């Protein structure tokens, strides 16, 4: 590798794995309040009909939700579940994003020209595999984000307490609650997010509209975030409701979706759409830009270590 520029050297699987987890944690730190607002909006009205829910809505809009939470629960409430969120990203994003290129090469048998089918298959595979690794952290994160500090006792006192309480009260299966909708959601999200980013970036580079640098990464990431929000919102709302539900409230994810449709109508599946888009759009921009730069920095460090002079 002596004599190669860092950007000309393909990043190794280890570099991608570590870079993806680190970049996702940085993105989560910046965008977590938007994710918390999204969860609060998604679970709002789940025990009421659409008319009563609209009349008694505690949260209205992204900014309104954030301001209400700060006023009634304090600024720290916006970061409820952050520890579990970072645990989730370090294990989850490392697999679904960091292994995407390796799995894509596996499906194309090492060919540099990957078709849309191979990309979709790779995205679905790593998305589903990531859920198998990180599901308990996602359950705890959602539970923390959903609990309000004001007006009653808190459901969980700490991240460790949440893991212990869920396992004690709901059994081991409680930590894996919502795995089915989460597998579906993340297969969809991964396909929409990674494949869209991949395709937009390739199109921009092939058309010579941009070079493989920050503006290209920013544009591709923003487009990927928008497409992902539109496609994944219905599954995301069902996943959030089901994971946050009390034991026995819903018999399955399908029952949760059907109950939502009957009580709140089709629009319920796009509750929290704006914070979802703001969060996914900004998260994608921060994550992909950071990820691309981390890959280059790590490969530059590896190159300098192998060729110090």
UniProtKB/TrEMBL annotation:
UniProt superkingdom: Eukaryota
Residue stretches spanning the membrane: none
Pfam families: Mito_carr
Biological process, per Gene Ontology: cellular response to glucose stimulus; glutamine metabolic process; glycolytic process; long-chain fatty acid transport; macrophage differentiation; mitochondrial fission; mitochondrial transmembrane transport; negative regulation of calcium import into the mitochondrion
Main location (coarse class): mitochondrion
Keyword Transferase: no
GO cellular component: mitochondrial inner membrane
Solcar repeats (start-end): 11-106, 114-203, 212-297
Keywords: Membrane, Mitochondrion, Mitochondrion inner membrane, Repeat, Transmembrane, Transmembrane helix, Transport
Signal peptide start and end residues: none
InterPro entries listed in its UniProt record: MCP, MCP_dom_sf, MCP_transmembrane, Mito_Metabolite_Transporter
UniProt membrane topology term: Multi-pass membrane protein
Gene3D superfamilies the UniProt entry points to: Mitochondrial carrier domain
Gene Ontology terms, MF aspect: antiporter activity; chloride transmembrane transporter activity; GDP binding; L-aspartate transmembrane transporter activity; malate transmembrane transporter activity; oxaloacetate transmembrane transporter activity; phosphate ion uniporter activity; protein homodimerization activity
Localization terms from the record: Mitochondrion inner membrane
Entry keyword annotation includes RNA-binding: no
Family classification: Belongs to the mitochondrial carrier (TC 2.A.29) family.
UniProt xrefs under PANTHER family: MITOCHONDRIAL DICARBOXYLATE CARRIER-RELATED
Name of the protein this chain belongs to: Uncoupling protein 2
Gene: UCP2
């Amino acid at each position: 590798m002596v004599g190669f520029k860092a950007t000309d050297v393909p990043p190794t699987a280890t570099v991608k794995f570590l870079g993806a987890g680190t970049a996702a944690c940085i993105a989560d730190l910046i965008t977590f309040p938007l994710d918390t607002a999204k969860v609060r909006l998604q679970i709002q009205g789940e025990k009421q009909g659409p008319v009563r829910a609209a009349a008694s809505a505690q949260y209205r809009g992204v900014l309104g939700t954030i301001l209400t939470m700060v006023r009634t629960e304090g600024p720290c409430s916006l970061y409820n579940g952050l520890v579990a969120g970072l645990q989730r990203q370090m294990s989850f994003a490392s697999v679904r994003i960091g292994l995407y290129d390796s799995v894509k090469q596996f499906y194309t048998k090492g060919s540099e020209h990957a078709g849309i089918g191979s990309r979709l298959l790779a995205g679905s595979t790593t998305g589903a595999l990531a859920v198998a690794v990180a599901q308990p952290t996602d359950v705890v994160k959602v539970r923390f984000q959903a609990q309000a500090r004001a007006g009653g006792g808190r459901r969980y006192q700490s991240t460790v307490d949440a893991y212990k309480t869920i396992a004690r009260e709901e059994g081991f299966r409680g930590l894996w609650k919502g795995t089915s909708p989460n597998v579906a959601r993340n297969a969809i999200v991964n396909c929409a997010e990674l494949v869209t980013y991949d395709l937009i970036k390739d199109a921009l580079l092939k058309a010579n509209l941009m070079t493989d640098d920050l503006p290209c990464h920013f544009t591709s990431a923003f487009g990927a975030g928008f497409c992902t929000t539109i496609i994944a919102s219905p599954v995301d709302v069902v996943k959030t409701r089901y994971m946050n539900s009390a034991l026995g409230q819903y018999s399955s994810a399908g029952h949760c979706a059907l109950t939502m449709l009957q009580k709140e109508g089709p629009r319920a599946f796009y509750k929290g759409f704006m914070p979802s888009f703001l969060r996914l759009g900004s998260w994608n921009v921060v994550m992909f830009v950071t990820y691309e730069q981390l890959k280059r920095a790590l490969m530059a460090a590896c190159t300098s270590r192998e060729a110090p002079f």
